[in-house]
């Protein structure tokens, strides 16, 4: 009898150990993933550029017309100067801040809106689900880029706030549709039924029961929204729908195109900001792919080591 009573108490710490191992395994798999490592490294480089641009250039005002126009790359000006006498490298470094702000703020706001509409529609059901789903489908059907141009034009071009609002309004619908489908598949799970039986409020169930199980999908939607924001904001600013006096990679593309940089022998004025936009987009895409592989084992690539072990 004593041995039977002792065995259950000795076995109780097992769930805590298992959960710790699960968390450690997820973190270790994230650190071992090459896509996540490369994407995170590129993102951190741009974060450092945006946080402390003074460490990478001695120019304090990148818009100042302080140098000889149309200089070729040299030790004093790594990427040369623009046709207006501005240092291209300084503009590139200072432009990282606004581009990152647009990506993170617009991506975060669009993700929050997607979560609110998608998860609420799936859990509430009935008339609320029909109304929110119809709103989501309307934004999914409307051609996105023409809508962006119309909103940016009539909302008053030239401000960063307008660009952020336009990106959030046009970037939430796809994520909301995905989150609604995922939440519908979980609506009748046992742990949600037990929460309803306990008398928990709907808001508590959505925040503390539903959302934690959708963390990987929410994170993937954030990375996708950030990628969409980076590319779309650069396109808007390239078309002249942003503030032409602001410092960002999109406005650099706008001025290089308007001053015919490629035709006048200043290709780095256009290539450098375009490459930075592409690299930042690649970093978000790589991190997105990495989280997909970590959350879904079927997407992970087969290692060659396994094949070698089988042959040996």
UniProtKB/TrEMBL annotation:
InterPro entries: BP-dependent_transpt_permease, MetI-like, MetI-like_sf
Gene3D superfamilies attached to this UniProt entry: MetI-like
Keyword set, alphabetical order: Cell membrane, Membrane, Transmembrane, Transmembrane helix, Transport
Membrane-spanning ranges: 36-56, 100-124, 131-154, 160-179, 204-231, 268-291
UniProt xrefs under SUPFAM superfamilies: MetI-like
Membrane topology: Multi-pass membrane protein
Composition bias type Low complexity, residue spans: 8-18
Domain called ABC transmembrane type-1: residue spans: 100-290
Lyase as UniProt keyword: no
Spans annotated as Disordered: 1-22
Localisation per UniProt entry: Cell membrane
One Pfam match: BPD_transp_1
Similarity section: Belongs to the binding-protein-dependent transport system permease family.
PANTHER family listed in its UniProt record: D,D-DIPEPTIDE TRANSPORT SYSTEM PERMEASE PROTEIN DDPC-RELATED, OLIGOPEPTIDE TRANSPORT SYSTEM PERMEASE PROTEIN APPC
Protein name per the record: ABC transmembrane type-1 domain-containing protein
């Amino acid at each position: 009898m004593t041995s039977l009573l002792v065995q259950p108490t000795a076995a109780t710490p097992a769930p805590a150990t298992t959960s710790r191992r699960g968390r450690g395994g997820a973190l270790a798999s994230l650190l071992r993933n090459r896509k996540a490592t490369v994407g995170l490294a590129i993102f951190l480089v741009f974060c450092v550029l945006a946080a402390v641009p003074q460490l990478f250039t001695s120019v304090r005002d990148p818009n100042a017309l302080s140098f000889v126009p149309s200089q070729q790359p040299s030790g004093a000006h790594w990427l040369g100067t623009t046709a207006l006498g501005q240092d291209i490298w300084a503009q590139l470094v200072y432009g990282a801040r606004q581009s990152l702000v647009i990506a993170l703020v617009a991506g975060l706001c669009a993700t929050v809106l997607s979560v609110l509409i998608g998860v609420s529609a799936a859990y509430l059901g009935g008339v609320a689900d029909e109304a929110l789903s119809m709103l989501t489908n309307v934004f999914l059907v409307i051609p996105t880029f023409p809508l962006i141009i119309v909103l940016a034009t009539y909302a008053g071009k030239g401000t960063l706030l307008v660009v952020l609002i336009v990106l959030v309004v046009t970037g939430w619908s796809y994520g909301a549709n995905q989150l609604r489908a995922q939440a519908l598949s979980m609506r009748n799970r046992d742990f949600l039924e037990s929460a309803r039986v306990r008398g928990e409020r709907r808001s508590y169930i959505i925040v503390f029961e539903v959302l934690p199980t959708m963390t990987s999908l929410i994170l993937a939607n954030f990375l996708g929204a950030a990628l969409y924001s980076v590319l779309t904001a650069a396109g808007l600013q390239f078309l002249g729908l942003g503030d032409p006096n602001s410092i960002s990679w999109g406005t650099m593309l706008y001025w290089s195109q308007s001053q015919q940089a490629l035709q006048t022998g200043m290709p780095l004025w256009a290539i450098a900001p375009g490459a930075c936009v592409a690299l930042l987009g690649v970093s978000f895409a790589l991190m997105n792919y990495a989280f997909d592989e970590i959350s879904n084992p079927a997407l992970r690539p087969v290692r060659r080591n396994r094949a070698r072990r089988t042959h040996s």
